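Appendix B. Chain record.
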Amino acid sequence: MEFRYPIKIRAVWWEGNKVCWIDTRKLPFREEIYCSNDPLRVAKAIIEMEIRGAPAIGVAAALAIASYAKELLEDNTYRDKFDNILKNAVKLLWETRPTAYNLFWALKRISSIIDLELDPHEKTSRLVEEALDIMREDIEANIKLGEYGAELIDHEDTILTHCNAGALATAAFGTVGGIIRVAWYTGKKIKIITTETRPVLQGARLNVWEYSREGIPITLITDSMAAFVIRKGLVNKVIVGADRITRKGYVVNKIGTYGIALAAKRHNIPFYVAAPTSTIDLGSSVDDVVIEERNPDEIRKVMDKPITLPEIPVYNYAFDITDPDLVTAIITEKGVVYPPFEENLAKIVKK
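Structure tokens predicted for this chain:
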């Protein structure tokens, strides 16, 4: 695949009729790659956050079904049960993470192929084609999104970001990462401030690893420091990703986003959200969103080392919800969306 900008980091890709991924849990200290055609293994990777980030999850799930179909073709005993086996695999992957909308968007596209009246060989060919299209479209969307977003970035801006919405959260290139990369590649001397992003430390581990590799200046802060850094005027813009955007423009993103949005509003700092249109769920309201609650031990430990008493009760919400009035604009691959979001998101998705 040829793209307008260099693709230096891939989180999920297709190789040897298998879905492959870099285990983001091991970064920045080890770069471990796994490949599989087993949807159960891919589901485990998604649940345990080897693969994470809404677009990457969607791409991985699509590729997992395609690679599984290729595997099933080699055993004629599955011919009569081919569709049912694939539908069960879709259900398995559907239930891995409840919040990220890209997962459901991608699996709906894959399911529409499974439902076609085709023989297993032709159906598998179509599944592989669709999954590869989803992966390619993700990268192309990130690049287009990056170009739109980079127009909003000024020379010598300092950008605050929270969690990883870079190449490691997508098939490649990134959403927030796409904006940062295009701005940097086109000569804008920018700086990045990233929160550490507790409890899994996607900022400290993944953002630092990604941007340092490209020579983009990046400074790490604690999550609780973000509002003060904004107050001190050390930030020109805030750009975050999203795991789901509702029809009215409520933004579901990594826990802690809401507080940063409030601080940005208070100090008149633009707060941008970068997400492909596959993240926008026009069928949902804020009341429909299921906020994932993860293993309490993610809070009780840091990098598997206990930091508190083992029996202490824990809340571990993975995401929070930012109100649309706190969002300056939503940057997509089809353009920049400004309020009123309910009207303008519908237009951009259908564009």
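Further analysis of this model is presented in Appendix C.
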